[in-house]
Amino acid sequence: MEIALHLGLHCTDEDRILACLQKNSARLAASGTHVPEIGRYRPMIRQMLQVIKGGAPSAEAQLSLIDAMVDDDHAQRIVLSHDSFLGVPGRAVEGNLLYTTTAHRAPRLRALFANCDVSFFLAIRDPATFIPAVFARAQETNFDAFMEGSDALTLRWSNMIARLREAVPDCPITVWCNEDTPLIWNDVLRAVSQHDTDMVLEGRDDFINGLMAPAGAGRLHSYLQTHPPQTEAQRRKVVAAFLDKYAVVDALEEEIDLPDWTQSYVAQLSARYEADLGLIRQLPGVTFIEP
Questions:
Q1: Which strands sit side by side in the sheet containing 77-81, from one edge to the other?
Q2: Model's pTM, two decimal places?
Q3: pLDDT of 95-107, one tens digit each?
Q4: For residue 127, what are the contacts with CB-CB under 8 A and spacing of at least 6?
């Protein structure tokens, strides 16, 4: 049994992967991949994590969890997603680190499925936009209290992913940049679900269409119908061209309004993020999806 754990992270996917895969749940289940409704696993996983503390559930408890999620005894892969698997938004930044909870939350998640092959999936995001977004999501009114003295310039996703890798060394990790998601959407969906390359998922363009004006989305659909791309690289070029021409500005650009965050400071954060991506590409056991 394979368990694909999509960790989010906060303010990236917003359950879009689940929405698309669940729209295709019957077809995916026929090929062995199950995408259960969130009500069938999120409350149970939260409860079991509280019960086991630092230990591991019994084999019987593990089987009970899987049985509660899927009805098919022959399921080969189960996709589970929750952007708070590693903790709540208010704890995304602590002690100059991103997601300090990774070291203990990830092994506990893995322990829930000790007898399964577990893989982790997550999107990362430029701290220049991630920090304001997750701060707003945390519903904390004081930005300094949210940051707990952390310096945004010191935050590195490569450090967080390295800690994840150390915490669950037997689990493959797949990472991508949230900023690239529109261009690599099909690759992300396939990586998580492992559906056959010849299966075209219903609604796979819903996300991209939502980034464009209706006229642009319609023209993109017509173009892809009359000029079907022969490779995923060709499809990316087409999508990029249509987004460049028809994208709704508010869907791709975000206003940053935080104390002392000047344009120069934001540029520094983005530059360090770009440099950090090079370190992530070199991490062992990590697959980096990019255009």
A1: 33-34, 77-81, 2-6, 117-124, 173-177, 286-289
A2: 0.94
A3: 999 999 999 999 9
A4: 152, 155, 269, 272, 273
